[in-house]
Design a protein that fits this description.
Its EC number is 2.1.3.-. It holds the Pfam family Methyltransf_25. It is built from 8 helices and 8 strands, in the order ααβαβαββαβααβαββ. It is of the alpha/beta class. Strand 7 and strand 8 form a beta hairpin. The chain starts with 20 loop residues before the first helix and ends with a strand. 38% of the residues are buried.
Length: 242
């Protein structure tokens, strides 16, 4: 696993963060050192798949990056007859590496890795859809439209998993959770320069919602229930069941 040093040297002009080849190369290290609880979320997505994925149905991993959630799901549904995983990402560098990871191990579960904009993917006959730290990179209008399409394509009883960074209405709590997240990154070896430059690069492309906003959106769309099932500092994951 190559170490993430993308923001370790001073950058004269910091552009918007993109999931390019440089990021894809160090992504496993970056995500583990940047997102508290990431490994727990990935493991639990597999356990949720074991509970919700049904025979002859589709599972969508939208914004699959290198395929961590896809592989976790596949490990838990190999005995589910006719289940198929469709993994989608718009980064060619991510898709290329995801395909290598998927092909590295044989499995009876079919996995199709697609390079595409997740907003253009048709969702049908789905028992599970995963948006693992993906929705926050879309505009607010696109978020609602995508979730509506997912709801329409989910089978009754199907589940949507949405992992995100959260904002909080109570400002002291919000600032404390941000500070704790930065402490987490420091403990994992990131310098003050890396933390500052990464924050500058990502703040205009990642616009998080509050947990209340997520729940309101799920309710408006018509999900029967939704709740946070994991949270560590200002990161977490929710389920929404049709």
């Amino acid at each position: 696993m190559k170490k993430d040093t993308i923001f370790s040297a001073p950058i004269d002009k910091i552009g918007d963060f993109t999931f390019d080849a440089r990021v894809a190369e160090v992504f496993p290290d970056m995500i583990q050192r940047s997102v508290p609880g990431y490994s727990n979320i990935i493991s639990a997505i597999g356990m949720l798949a074991e509970r919700f994925v049904t025979p002859i149905s589709n599972v969508y991993d939208l914004g699959c990056s290198l395929g961590a959630a896809t592989l976790s799901i596949r490990r838990h549904i190999d005995s589910v007859e006719g289940a198929k995983i469709i993994a989608v990402d718009n980064s060619s560098a991510m898709v290329e590496r995801c395909k290598l990871h998927v092909d590295a191990y044989r499995s009876p579960t079919s996995v199709e890795v697609i390079e595409a904009d997740i907003r253009n993917i048709e969702i049908h006959n789905a028992s599970m859809v995963v948006l693992n730290f993906t929705l926050q990179f879309l505009s607010p209008d696109d978020r609602f439209a995508l979730l509506e399409k997912i709801h329409q394509g989910l089978n009754p009883g199907g589940v949507l998993i949405v992992s995100e960074k959260y904002v909080f209405d109570d400002n002291p709590s919000h600032e404390l959770l941000i500070d704790l997240h930065h402490d987490f990154k420091r403990a994992n070896g990131y310098s003050e320069l890396e933390i500052s430059q990464k924050r500058s690069a990502i703040e205009d492309v990642m616009r998080p919602d509050s947990i209340a906003q997520h729940k309101q959106r799920f309710a408006e769309i018509g999900f029967s229930s939704a709740e946070v099932w994991f949270q560590c500092f200002n990161f977490g994951s929710m389920f929404a069941i049709k």
